[in-house]
Amino acid sequence: MFKIPFLDLPPLRGAAGTVRLPGSKSISNRVLLLAALSEGKTFVRDLLASDDTAVMLEALRTLGCGVWREGDALVIDGLGGRLRAKDAKLFLGNAGTAMRPLTAALALLAATQGGSFEVSGVPRMHERPIGDLVDALRGLGCEIDDLGNAGYPPLRLRGPSSLALDTPVRVRGDVSSQFLTALLLALPLVAERDIRIEVIGELISKPYIEITLALLARFGIDVKREGWEAFVIPAGSRYRSPGEVFVEGDASSASYFVGLGAIAASEAPMRIEGVGSESLQGDVRFIEAAAAMGAEITTGPNWLEVRRGAWPLKGITLDCNHIPDAAMTLTVMALYADGPTTLTNIASWRVKETDRIAAMATELCKLGATVEEGPDWIRVEPLKDWQAAAIHTYDDHRVAMCFSLAAFNGLVTSAAQPVRILEPHCVAKTFPDYFETLFGVVTANAADIPVITIDGPTASGKGTLADEVGKALGFAVLDSGALYRVAGLAARRAGLDLDDGAAVAAIVPTLQLRFIDGQVFLGSEDVSARLRAEATGLLASQVAVHPAVRQALHQLQLSFRRLPGLVADGRDMGTAIFPDADLKVFLTASAATRAERRHKQLISKGISANIKGLREDLEARDERDKNRSASPLAPAQDAQLLDNSALTIEASVDQMLVWWQQRRPF
Fold it and tell me: Which residues bind 3-phosphoshikimate (predicted)?
């Protein structure tokens, strides 16, 4: 996950490959609560690992549930409907799928068994309405105190109190389906007689109620229904663990890759595994909307394949009540259409993680789009004159993921623009590895992938600076100085004759090299310490004399130019390897300063050293590097000179980020 202030997406050009979706958020948190309320142990497999499930699991532990891992399963040792903790404060973040059902369940358990429970969340959660659910629970006789604004969290749920279960429980259905879901999940705990729930107004997001009913059946509760107007919990209902539950992939998350296929999978299909024709989730019907816009879609029981069909896409008008979350993706797809797209019946967007209608309209306009919005609708015009934009994500995972599709604007305009996603880590709510997954299935022109080079003499701090800048931007890192050592080490391990330049060069393209936090990995092995050994340095000298090896390593270095960008350090990165780099920096720390730094490093490792000797050695190496025939050490003509003699690493990073921002269009 990219835990950085912003992530820059360069222009993207194509998509193909296979994506395995994370588990459904809606199913995951429902299953966790049902397992917690049941008798017995439940083995939950393919559970979503995200912020929302994390706060639910922490709440269940606080309430006395046993929670542990066995192999690839998470085991929940259920409460059997009996409270083990009678006093608790539960922080539920911004997880509506935890806040609403837990509020209902704890209100009823406190009423029948006694106890006091406080539920709270992040500031945005305290702006998300829960009053209709609270009113329904109070109508039953539950004691609920508002600890902030009436009708919103935080709340205190306390008891005991007498429940009136002989009259229907009435709840509004036109604000959020989670209120009805919460009652359906909680009322079996007190069903000494039939309990009738009546829905006031039109029920929105009906597919989410279908999920709830299907999962209730898995845990032994057979709810009787009268259309979408009334539901009856049978007398004597009791939760029983099914023993094992598999969580299917998240259909809402599938929408981004369906959209990706519709926009950019022109050569090979985008395959999405984890949802398909047998999915419980209503959002899988997003494929119908994508097909209406022109996508070519094939489905299987647990997979989808999507290709670009009509191009440009087709503008549509659609009632989105059945796909409330996934429909957000259509607003960005609409930018690639042949006419306007209008989405209606989306009032629920306004009470989600943010006011999603307002958020999408605001951010689409930053790209240059023409957008209109109403109380429960949004209309988006196709976009031709794209603008580079920094997208504010409002701590809303779906906003961040939707706008990643805007990076394909180069498919419809000759002036392709990058897109900046602010606070990209908000995707942790449902899909922590979303951007890493995206980069694994999309392509870009090499010239569009940004590169920062850091060159300089030996011991100038290039490697440390490159690592820190790479972390700050989410870019890959290339330590060019390690390549000859790795090539020599790999050739020796393969039993090659190091005097056979062609044989050594042939092994170079097979090297699986990664640079992470200053360490060098060859495959899964950390070879950092071995590369520093004197014997490995001698191997590097042997292989470096071969032109074929140098050419192979040159190509290997170029291959590190990968999404979303690269920071490369060495002696000729900005002059010979990446002469088109977006930012070139050349370090100019004096030999005296570098000798002092090297001396401190060696002493800290218990290695004796002499500063004068170190300085003389560095000055001699500088002279050799400056006068060598191939790629002599020298700053590129357009390089920024950075004298880091008196700068901390933090100050050096800050200066580089300032230079970088000055070169970006945001």
Answer: 25-26, 30, 176-178, 205, 325, 352
Q: SS3 of 493, please?
A: helix
325 is in an annotated binding site: yes
Host H or E run for residue 246:
strand 244-246
According to the annotation, is 651 in a ligand binding site?
Answer: no
Number of Cβ within 10 Å of residue 304's Cβ equals: 30
Tens of pLDDT, residue by residue over 92-151, are 999 999 999 999 999 999 999 999 999 999 999 999 999 999 999 999 999 999 999 999
Residue 645 among known ligand-binding residues? no
Q: Is 240 annotated as a binding residue?
A: no
C-alpha–C-alpha distance, residues 373 and 379, integer Å: 6
DSSP collapsed to 3 states, 105-157: HHHHHHHHHCEEEEEECCCCHHHCCCHHHHHHHHHHCCEEEECCCCCCCCEEE
Residue 319, beta-bridge partner list: 344
User: Does the annotation list 50 as a binding residue?
Assistant: no
Q: DSSP character for 204?
A: P
Rounded-to-5 percentages of helix, strand, coil across the chain: 40, 20, 35
Q: How many CB atoms lie within 10 A of CB 87?
A: 12
Q: Which of the residue ranges 257-266, 573-582, 610-619 would you say has the lowest mean pLDDT?
A: 610-619
CB-based burial label for 495 (10 Å; 0-12, 13-18, 19+)? exposed
Query: In whole angstroms, what is the distance from residue 531 CA to residue 481 CA?
Result: 10
Signed CA dihedral, 324, 261, 53, 353: sign only:
negative
Label residues 228-245 b or e (16+ Cβ within 10 Å = b).
eeebbbeeebebebbeeb
List the structure tokens of 95: 């997880």
Distance CA(490)–CA(511), nearest Å, equals: 8
Q: Which residues are catalytic?
A: 325
Strand partners, 230: 198, 226
Residue 162 labelled as part of a binding site: no
Question: How are strands ordered across the β-sheet holding 451-455?
Answer: 476-479, 566-570, 451-455, 583-587, 640-642
Q: Which amino acid is at 35?
A: A
Structure tokens at 432: 């922590």
Mean per-residue pLDDT of the chain = 94
d(CA 113, CA 83): 7
φ, ψ of residue 350 to 5 degrees: the values are: -75, -15
Angle between helices 206-218 and 25-37 (to 10 degrees): 40
Distance CA 427, CA 644 (A): 36
pLDDT greater than 90 at residue 609: no
The confidence score (pLDDT) of residue 630 equals 67
Is the sign of the CA dihedral 400, 405, 407, 412 positive or negative?
A: negative
Can you tell me the distance from the alpha carbon of 471 to that of 477, in angstroms, rounded to the nearest whole number? 9
> Which amino acid is located at 138 in the chain?
R
- In tens, the pLDDT along 315-362 reads 999 999 999 999 999 999 999 999 999 999 999 999 999 999 999 999
436 HSE (CA, 13 A, CB side): 13
Convert 559-573 to b/e letters by CB count within 10 Å (16 or more is b): ebbebbbbbbbbbbb
Residue 112's pLDDT is what? Answer: 97
Please tell me the total number of residues recorded for the chain in this structure: 666
